[in-house]
Design brief:
Layout lengths: L1 H27 L3 E4 L18 E7 L7 H15 L5 E8 L3 H12 L7 E6 L1 H10 L11 E8 L5 E7 L3 E3 L2 E2 L3 H31 L1
Length: 210
């Protein structure tokens, strides 16, 4: 009896633990789709687009001097951690007329990291409110067309997030003023969506080889 128990602990139990975690990874690897097909970047004259990219979408508004803290938090906690991944980008929406201000902000961010995937796009007020409205969240823009929340948009322009968050129930976005929210939740969710696409890519590659 004792010998059987020792054999179970040494050989069977590790296998059970491995299978548990292996299946957990496979089942865990997706973020909920909260809104399908958010608007594209209408009225934006640049070549930047949401399609075929994993995008962190933000709305910095017209009062950029007071939003620098949001940008620096995101840069340090999220951007620097993930910017080297293919098809990953930051898109920050600001009203037209703020081009000079964003140049200064991007230069400041550039002293801390490579900013190639920090994109600022300039849109008319109606286009900004339409884009934000298409997210269909319980959040709102302020009078400067800004919000401290940023959003994960997948390659098919779907808003990704949590529908079972322990604090908010449905979690549409992440508060850039809260280092805890970025560290404890957003980092994990960006990891999940990147892993989801990496897994899909591996499966497609394997099928092609077959």
């Amino acid at each position: 009896m004792k010998k059987s128990f020792v054999l179970f602990v040494l050989f069977v139990l590790p296998l059970v633990v491995y299978l548990f975690f292996a299946s957990g990874v496979n089942n865990f690897g997706k973020l909920a789709i909260l809104t399908e097909k958010v608007n594209g970047l209408n009225g934006n004259p640049s070549s930047i687009a949401l399609e075929d990219k994993i995008t962190i979408l933000g709305f910095l508004g017209s009062d950029l001097d007071h939003k620098k803290g949001h940008a620096f938090n995101l840069n340090q906690k999220i951007y620097k951690r993930f910017y080297e991944f293919d098809d990953f980008q930051f898109v920050m929406v600001v009203p037209k007329g703020m081009e000079e201000k964003t140049i200064g902000l991007k230069k400041e961010l550039g002293t801390l990291s490579d900013t190639d995937k920090w994109n600022f796009i300039f849109m008319k007020k109606n286009d900004i409110t339409d884009l934000f409205g298409s997210l269909k969240t319980d959040l709102s823009l302020d009078e400067n067309l800004s919000t401290p929340y940023v959003f994960i948009i997948d390659k098919d322009r779907n808003l990704r997030g949590r529908n079972d968050d322990e604090d908010e129930g449905t979690k549409y976005g992440f508060d850039a003023t809260s280092v805890a929210d970025l560290n404890n939740k957003m980092v994990d969710d960006v990891k999940i969506i990147l892993a989801e696409y990496r897994l899909a890519l591996k499966k497609n590659t394997s099928r092609k080889k077959i």
